[in-house]
């Protein structure tokens, strides 16, 4: 029997790194995007009223309770500074007396967003969906 002799190849086999790096970057991007989607963002759901609802309910709605958050981070109601517990008591009283009333948080634009959202979340724990963030037009 005759075997063919294998001739030594003149070129050394190489590993091409570019396609392998492309695949690895694609896999890395997939895992980064997946981990970002699975992260549980902390936030407050805000539902803005539509123009149609606003015109129909304008005559029926009592004046809202406007809570201000000044640049120093103090809670102000009717030009008087309050603590959180006092504010929550005032909110409960107002909402009990006005079943269709709303509570608005009017925060200073220089305050950190985190502080505003934290107070808004605590206010929503007391007032539910009748608490909103006031915006300037």
Task: Please specify the SSE layout and strand pairing.
Blueprint: H1 17-38, H2 51-57, E1 65-69, E2 75-77, E3 80-82, H3 84-97, E4 103-107, H4 113-127, E5 131-133
Parallel strand pairs: 1-4, 4-5
Antiparallel strand pairs: 1-2, 2-3
Give an overview of the whole structure:
It is rod-shaped, with a radius of gyration of 31 Å. The longest helix is centred in the first third of the chain and has 22 residues. The protein contains 4 helices and 5 strands. The protein has a domain of 83 residues: Nucleotidyltransferase, domain 5 (2-Layer Sandwich).
Summarize the structure.
With 137 residues, the chain is α/β, with parallel strands linked by helices. The chain is built from 4 helices and 5 strands; from the N terminus they run H-H-E-E-E-H-E-H-E.
What is the count of helical runs? 4
Uncertain stretches of 5 or more adjacent residues: none
Distance from N terminus to C terminus (CA atoms, Å) equals: 95 Å
Structural class: alpha/beta
Shape: rod-shaped
Order of helices and strands: HHEEEHEHE
What's the main sheet like?
Answer: 5 strands, mixed
CATH architecture of the domain at 51-133: 2-Layer Sandwich
Specify Rg, calculated over alpha carbons.
31 Å
In the CATH hierarchy, the third-tier topology of the domain at 51-133 is known as Nucleotidyltransferase, domain 5
Percent in strands: 5-15%
Helical content, roughly?
40-55%
Q: Give the strand line-up of the largest sheet.
A: 3-2-1-4-5
């Amino acid at each position: 029997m005759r075997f063919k002799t294998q001739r030594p190849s003149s070129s050394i086999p190489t590993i091409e790194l570019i396609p392998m790096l492309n695949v690895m970057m694609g896999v890395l991007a997939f895992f980064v995007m997946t981990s970002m989607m699975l992260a549980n963002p902390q936030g407050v759901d805000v539902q803005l009223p539509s123009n149609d609802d606003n015109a129909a309910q304008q005559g029926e709605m009592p004046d809202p309770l406007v809570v201000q958050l000044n640049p120093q981070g103090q809670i102000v109601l009717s030009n008087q500074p309050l603590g959180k517990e006092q504010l929550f008591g005032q909110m409960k009283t107002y909402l009990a007396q006005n079943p269709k009333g709303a509570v608005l948080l009017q925060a200073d634009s220089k305050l950190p967003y985190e502080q505003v959202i934290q107070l808004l979340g605590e206010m929503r724990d007391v007032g539910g969906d009748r608490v909103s963030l006031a915006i300037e037009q």
